[in-house]
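Subject: two folds for Thursday's group meeting

Dear M.,

Sorry for the delay on this. The cluster queue was jammed most of the week, so I only got both jobs back this morning. I'm pasting them in the order they finished. Each block is the input sequence followed by the predicted structure tokens. Could you check whether the formatting survives your parser before we put anything on slides? The first protein is the one we discussed after the seminar.
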Amino acid sequence: MSIALGREAILAGFTTATTLVAGLAKAHGERRLDDKLLALAKPKLLIVDELGYLPLEPDAAHLFFQLVSRRYETGAMLITSNRSVAEWGAVFADPVVATAILDRLLHHSHVLTIRGDSYRLRAKRKSGLIKPPTAGDGPPVGSASLRPVTGGNNPQPRS
């Protein structure tokens, strides 16, 4: 029973980035954006998975900024991405919006960088279904490379 309750608590505040911005765009089109942002501001932890898997349209990036601003210093966000912070200008189709989002997200944050294969690829390699990478292949799929942020009171991301 405790596992089921924990799972429901997690799912109440879990979404993929694509689903999240689609919901924000729909609410905006229906003139319910404030209600949607209010609902997304309520969970103590909002988990956004796969940010940057697909680049966001400029309007979607602005909607995501509004969400981050609404939750800033009121609720925690856990965001997963295979994109480095340096690539977020392209992810959000606007370096200025990306900087504003990162400014709020990185303040009071802990950044974890995970290098190496995902658990899915690791299992495939172990079973022999795919070959191990060679030195010329570049970074492993699923690796992240976060660069330290300088200036202000932002904590330094750790590798």
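Second protein, same layout:
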Amino acid sequence: MNNLTLLALVPSNVWLQALLLVAGVAVVLWGADRLTDGSVALAERMGIPQIVIGLTVVAMGTSMPEFFVSLMSAINGTPDLAVGNVVGSNIFNTLLIVGVAAMVAPITILHTTVRKDIPFAMVASTLLLMMCLDSEIGRIDALVLFVLFIVFMVFTVRGAHQPKPTDDAPANAEAEAKPAMSPLKACLLMLLGLVCLVLGSNVFVGNASAIAHSLGVSDAVIGLTIVAGGTSLPELATSTVAAYRGNSGIAIGNVLGSNVFNILMILGITGLISPMAIQGITTVDLTMMVVSIMMLWLFSFTKYRVERWEGAALAIVFIGYMAHLISAAVA
């Protein structure tokens, strides 16, 4: 551990560690909200289209908890926690979040999503699986991931320049109804969110790692379960509410965008800063990440819709995977 770990406020009492872990999650999620709010307000003041904001700024904002938790994990010498956070978050997003959202209300999938967005997420997941076969994500691997992230962003922004009028009407009406935030306030919100993300993720990672070691659980399992679930809360809330309100595009787009950002941006930047040797993340975990996105693609490809029973199937697979992780940790 280096000096950054001292900032994590890790007490010796396991109950205090658990309390600080929860507090760290709360600070990270609150900071992500502030960063997203400030970024969206600043983008609107600059005249950036709503659809571009949603595909870039908002999607990146909801991935900020995963980014800072993974970054601080890698810097603090717990790479399994960093990679486990990303892999676990993607599994959590695809199986549980889409599953719950579809059970709340069937999700309609656009043809372009089935043809382009889901396959791109599958390619990113498969690429990460192949990179982890040698148990290391080096700087060259990370550079490849980050370059693909830039490519993804370029194509996303270019494709967003021709939105459908009906899709943007509610968003624009809502934007006109709200008073515009001043640039100073937007920048202050972004700065406050950034500070909360750094401090909260450091506290969260330090105490999660301490609890894992005291219970004899590996960093990888903690990253795949508690850390991944905690940092995926924004996506869970956003997609479930969106599905309930009939906004299927937001529900599925939030998940796919987050999954791509998690792999390409988070591991790309994290690996460039601190190459990661992976020990506890197994082929089963990585394969489950690929299988989950394949299941979503198959369900979407049939009728361009994820029905309630298909959502239940995704959720059941997630429960089975969690049971596997827990049983393996206890054994």
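Two things I noticed about the second structure. Residues 65 and 184 are 24 Å apart (CA to CA). The longest strand covers residues 107-108.

Cheers,
T.
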